Amino acid sequence: MKVQKAGVIGLGNIGPGHYRVYKELGLDVIGYDVEEKPGYNMAQKFDELSECDIVSICVPTNLHLEYGIRIGDLGVKNILMEKPYAKTVDECKILTEYFKKENIRATVGMIERYNPALNKVKELTRDEKILSMIFKRVGTKPGRIKDPISLDIGVHDFDLVKMISGNKLKDIRVLRKDDEEAMYYGKAGDANVIIELSWKAKDTKGRSLNLFTDKNVYYADYVNFRDPKILVRGKFDYTWENGDFVEFQNLSEDLKEIEFDKTEPLKNEISDIIQRIEEGEPFNISLEDATDAVRFATTY
Ligand SMILES: NC(=O)c1ccc[n+]([C@@H]2O[C@H](COP(=O)([O-])OP(=O)(O)OC[C@H]3O[C@@H](n4cnc5c(N)ncnc54)[C@H](O)[C@@H]3O)[C@@H](O)[C@H]2O)c1
Fold first, then answer.
1. 10 C-alpha to center of ligand 1: Å?
2. Residue 37 contacts residue 10 (beta carbons within 8 Å)
């Protein structure tokens, strides 16, 4: 099938991004919101969304369950739910059962899976043994967000552990957890994993992965999605004798910046979803993976 018409429910912070990308990809787009949204082509009645080939659900998380079912009941057959999939694992399961029963194809906007910096790190470490991954996601709490930090932003990192290492997070220990700060330790295969989340960094913001393998040390900083960076330190050693460095070995692979295509994650995500609908391929992000991320965020 050709995807020609898209709907976006909820034009708050992230919804306008979906609306813009669908437009840039040449689709007809219609929005729906309980508030006036000047400048957008808005549906006057919810039923008008029934003609959409795909609908993005970008309302607050406590409404994902309700809108997933309402839009499915209208007959829409492809759904992109913003992350987190839903508020609880039980709600995720209700939605998954419902989509299956109604033959609806749905996926969840775990946008970091489409982050070019993280995909590059995955590619660079493919043939190396990952020994440690430290994810940091820090900043100020967005006023409009009601979800605790692990559900709002931790879901990305829980999911990234498996995306990058191929191993699911396990043996999780919670080192600290409240609504605004959390720190987890776990393992992915043999690798140590630390996830640090904080909304207490008032004047700055960070999203980074510090990873080392048996061969290299990587640092990916992707807080600026327009210009993410990756630094890598390769073979490096020195000997120390009589109070001085006497020999630096092979500095040719010393700290260097990696070049890669800095494409927009949201555009990558939506184009991939449309292509998979048109080609009848399974989505990159399964509902099981999206449910797992909610499970990690709400269980531990
Ligand atoms: N993928 C990401 O990186 C990312 C980024 C931001 C937000 N999100 C997710 O997207 C969702 C929305 O977040 P946001 O920051 O855009 O929220 P927001 O509060 O800025 O926007 C929500 C919009 O939904 C509308 N809305 C509220 N109740 C409604 C209802 N009953 N019916 C129709 N519209 C309604 C509001 O008027 C508002 O325009 C959340 O689940 C959030 O976690 C994901």
1. 6
2. no
